[in-house]
Structure formats: C-alpha cells, structure tokens
Amino acid sequence: METKHALDCFAALAQETRLAVFQMLVRHEPDGLAAGEIARRLNVPHNTMSTHLAVLTRAGLTRSDRQSRSIIYRADLDRIDQTIRFLVRDCCNGRPEICQPLLDSLTDDLPTPDT
Questions:
Q1: What Å distances lie between residue 110 and 7, 28, 37, 85, 107, CA to CA?
Q2: Class of 1-109 in CATH
C-alpha cells in the first residue's frame, strides 16, 4: 500500500460518523447493510449518510452493490488489512518476536466459536 492510500483511509476514518459506519459494517460482514438502514441506526439524515458513504467508498474502505431498490454497503476487509499491514510493516525493526504482544492483542477480544 502506498502512503497516499493509507492517508486516504485514515482521513476517511478520522470522523466520528464515518468511523461508526465502518465499525457497523465490519460487524455485519459478509451480508452488509442497506444505506437507509445505516442512516436509521445511526440517526443520520439520508443525504448526510450518502456523503459519508461516498468518502468511505473513495478511500476503498467500503463497497456497494445494488439489490433491487436498495444499495447494500459492505466493509472492504482486504483494504483494512492492507492498512493495518502498512502501519506495522516495519514493526520492531525486523524482530517479529517483539511484535507478538501486538499480534496477540488483535485476537484477545474476539468471541470464541461455540463447539
């Protein structure tokens, strides 16, 4: 990932509503949510939500598909993966064992699957 693309992602997420939208879409993967449903859940006017979704889409953090009369938005998990990798690619000066606590913390709060 180039620095410009990473900055686009950071800029898109550096606003409270857009961050909330992105987090909501991550929670609703892989099905996504309709634009109107996102606006309703976050209590944001539809035209304002459209602007926020456009910013997230231009940054590559979301993608959309038309389903009948609705536009369904989904988080682009590959893009966020690239962004995280951009942040830590030079982690710990080539000593990955130092980064292990960071890597472990990424999965600490994940729910365990039912067995």
A1: 27, 15, 25, 19, 5
A2: mainly alpha
